[in-house]
Inverse folding.
């Protein structure tokens, strides 16, 4: 697992307006959380954070935060080993507006989500025109931070139409425990979707109305029966 160093500064001014000012200066408000301890508000450089997110490890990268307090000293006051917990984005433009970190220990297991990546082309797609469906795109795993894989690779070349792979069929690296249901379907190859002619679809949509005879009340039917002349009588 790739480890990255990221500079961070203690954030003394909190609140919406203060955060807006930070973003205008090219920083992203951040918070470091650790179970049982008080959270630490920070600010990090937006460009540096963007660079980290575009490494091969993406959001599962292990980061060493070198924290400074600009108001007291320019030297780092503490290092924290963290992993990204959540990134908040502006809903319209998609810009990063806040990031949460979880402080971790390299000797304690953590839970993360890892993407699933397919290798090869299924024979059911290549030869028979089927479609490979990605039912599950990532797995939830538990392992030491240093053993987090960048991805879970799945070879799909032998899959035919109608075949599927479940969690229990995947090859998982040693030291990693998958938390998903073993019976959960991850990938499947389905028959090609055939478009019907417009005329055929239109014909199927035309349904003849069902003729239903209205049932008369029992009392009315009984009265009609009473008013009928008995057979053989005038």
């Amino acid at each position: 697992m790739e480890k990255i160093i990221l500079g961070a500064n203690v954030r003394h001014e909190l609140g919406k307006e203060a955060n807006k000012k930070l973003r205008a200066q090219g920083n992203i408000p951040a918070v470091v959380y650790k179970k049982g301890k008080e959270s630490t508000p920070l600010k990090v450089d937006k460009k540096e954070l963007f660079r980290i997110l575009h490494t091969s490890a993406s959001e599962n990268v292990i980061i060493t935060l070198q924290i400074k307090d600009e108001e007291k000293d320019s030297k780092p006051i503490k290092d924290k080993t963290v992993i990204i917990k959540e990134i908040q984005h502006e809903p319209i433009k998609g810009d990063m507006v806040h990031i949460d970190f979880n402080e971790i220990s390299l000797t304690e297991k953590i839970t993360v989500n890892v993407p699933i990546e397919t290798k090869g082309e299924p024979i059911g797609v290549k030869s028979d025109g089927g479609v490979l469906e990605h039912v599950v795109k990532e797995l939830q795993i538990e392992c030491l931070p240093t053993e987090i894989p960048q991805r879970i690779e799945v070879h799909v070349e032998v899959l035919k139409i109608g075949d599927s792979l479940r969690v229990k069929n995947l090859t998982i690296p040693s030291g990693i425990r998958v938390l998903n249901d073993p019976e959960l379907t991850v990938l499947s190859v389905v028959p090609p979707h055939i478009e019907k002619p417009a005329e055929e679809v239109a014909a199927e949509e035309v349904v003849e109305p069902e003729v239903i005879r209205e049932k008369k009340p029992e009392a009315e039917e009984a009265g009609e029966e009473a008013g009928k002349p008995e057979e053989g009588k005038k």
